[in-house]
Specification:
With about 525 residues, this protein is an all-alpha fold. The protein contains 22 helices and two strands. Helix 16 packs across helix 17. The longest helix is centred in the first third of the chain and has 32 residues. It comes from Polyodon spathula. This is BAT1 protein. It is a multi-pass membrane protein.
């Protein structure tokens, strides 16, 4: 499908099409506010409302759980800063996938895309959707067990609704993200204020002998980190949409076109332009992750001020239990707030998750149809539809705890590979232009933590499930060799691509390098 003529009413769309190649670019719609909302809004979601009891359960004490939450925030911050450097060296969307492809080669990158697209991203989306559904349904079944069928139906409806919004317009997705980010902040501030009031009134029993009962061991610490890091999931989301970040040097380009500046000033601005290329990436990280870490610590203190550790661990919906004790007849507001928070987090996860599929297809590792964008809306709708379908399939047998553990195990394995690539670039490719750099000790610390999170549960408590996970990742080789390396069955895929291209009104895209 080729676009040969543009009507005047569609000039904004036509401006995004490269005149020489007649291919599409995804729009740069994400500014600093949207970037902060995408990061913080994705992290603040189901985890802070569902993981606190699991972190406390595995570590055994209130003091130990607070240390875990702070350490998880620090690890997410160090990882994000390392990814920010990768994003300023490799200025392409796709996150871990594109970084592994450029530093480690096509096979490891394909295994990441294979695992991420088929399990990791769909499982993450399904887990957050289940959290949203539980809180959305809870006010209608007070004091009764939640019907599993109803919960899953609501979760599926939420996924479909966000799929439609993301397919229709990028700006709509970002507007949803910013709006629900504000809702999250309000709900967390209410929880924090309630906790402060309870502490002032003398509810400090949970903090007396705060470290009594702490469970020290490789496996419990590792699992507690898994549960805590689930709440920080999304710390690398901006790297998946690097090509859609607004460039802050746009005003410089406009000035250069005026032609009234002296040559020396023009040369200086051109040299400065690359230094400002993706400044929104580290800026958003430095704002979002410290904000989230502080909020998480204060919210957990509030939970412990209102509930005893035993009550917290026995609660299936921590925010709702907190609301019953503090807000009384208005406790249903906390279920609504938690549901809204999960909804915003799901939107951010969905937005970035579809980009992995889209970029992998653009690099030839997935069917071509997944690399295309809608000719008018300029959204990667085939990749988003594919991600939606897999998420709904994962939702059918979904269990929150098993989803978290499986996701964390596979994710940190590939984080370690990605950051090893950063070390390679730092040591062997120092000549590459780089507008942002972190000390080499930071990625080394994150790699060590990633290796610990991958190996600790296996060494301390070996289970057959870990072998299944490893075999599943390696099984991607059986698909890579015939379908990617030797490119078998091209005719069948070509016919399907043409049909879907016409049906979905999509066309090939190119990298956004403007």
């Amino acid at each position: 499908m080729r676009k040969t003529k543009c009507k005047s009413s569609g000039s904004s769309t036509c401006s995004e099409i490269n005149e020489n190649t007649q291919k599409l670019n995804l729009k740069r719609e994400i500014g600093l506010v949207s970037a902060v909302s995408l990061l913080a809004g994705t992290m603040i979601g189901s985890g802070i409302f569902m993981s606190p009891q699991w972190v406390l359960y595995h570590i055994g004490s209130p003091g130990g759980s607070l240390i875990i939450w702070a350490a998880c925030g620090l690890l997410a911050m160090l990882g994000s800063l390392s990814y920010a450097e990768l994003g300023t060296v490799i200025k392409e969307s796709g996150g871990d996938y594109i970084y592994i492809l450029r530093t480690s080669g096509p096979l490891p990158a394909f295994l990441l895309a294979f695992t991420s697209m088929l399990v990791v991203r769909p499982a993450s989306i399904a887990g957050i959707a289940l959290s949203f559904a539980e809180y959305a349904v809870a006010p209608f079944y007070q004091g009764c067990p939640l019907p599993e069928l109803v919960v899953k139906f609501v979760a599926a409806s939420c996924i479909l609704l966000l799929a439609i919004a993301n397919c229709l317009n990028v700006r709509w997705s970002m507007s949803i993200q910013v709006f629900f980010m504000a809702a999250k902040l309000i709900s967390l501030v209410v929880i924090i204020i309630g906790g402060v009031v309870m502490l002032i009134n003398g509810h400090t029993s949970s903090f007396q002998n705060a470290f009594q009962g702490t469970i020290v061991g490789i496996n419990p610490i590792g699992i507690a980190f898994y549960q805590g890091l689930w709440s920080y999931d999304g710390w690398n989301n901006l790297n998946y949409v690097t090509e859609e970040l607004k460039r802050p040097e746009g005003f410089i380009s406009n000035i250069l076109n005026l032609g009234c500046l002296c040559n020396a000033l023009q040369i200086w601005m051109k040299l400065t332009k690359d230094k400002l290329l993706i400044v929104n990436l580290p800026r958003a990280i430095m704002i979002a992750i410290p904000l989230v870490t502080v909020l998480y610590l204060l919210v957990n203190i509030s939970y412990l001020a209102v509930m005893t550790p035993t009550e917290l661990m026995s609660s299936s919906a921590v925010a709702a239990t907190w609301g019953n004790k503090v807000l009384g007849s208005w406790s249903w507001l906390m279920s609504v707030a938690a549901a809204l928070s999960s909804f915003g987090s799901l939107n951010g996860t969905f937005f970035s998750g579809g980009r992995v599929c889209y970029v992998a297809a653009r690099e030839g590792h997935m069917p071509d149809i997944l690399s295309m964008a809608h000719v008018r809306r300029l959204t990667p709708s085939p990749a988003l539809i594919f991600t939606t379908a897999l998420s709904l399939l994962v939702l059918i047998p979904g269990n929150f705890k098993s989803i978290v553990n499986f996701f964390s195990f596979t994710a940190w394995f590939f984080y370690a590979i990605t950051l090893s690539g950063l070390l390679y670039l730092k040591l062997k490719k120092r000549h590459l232009p780089n507008s942002y750099e972190v000390p080499i000790v930071i990625p080394i610390i994150v790699i060590i933590a990633a290796v610990f999170l991958v190996l600790a549960p296996i060494i301390d408590d070996p289970k057959i499930e870990y072998l299944y996970v490893s075999l599943f990742i390696l099984s991607g080789v059986m698909f890579y060799i015939p379908f990617v390396h030797f490119k078998l069955c091209p005719n069948l895929l070509t016919k399907a691509t043409v049909f879907l291209q016409l049906f979905l009104e999509v066309a090939p895209t190119e990298k956004n390098t403007d």
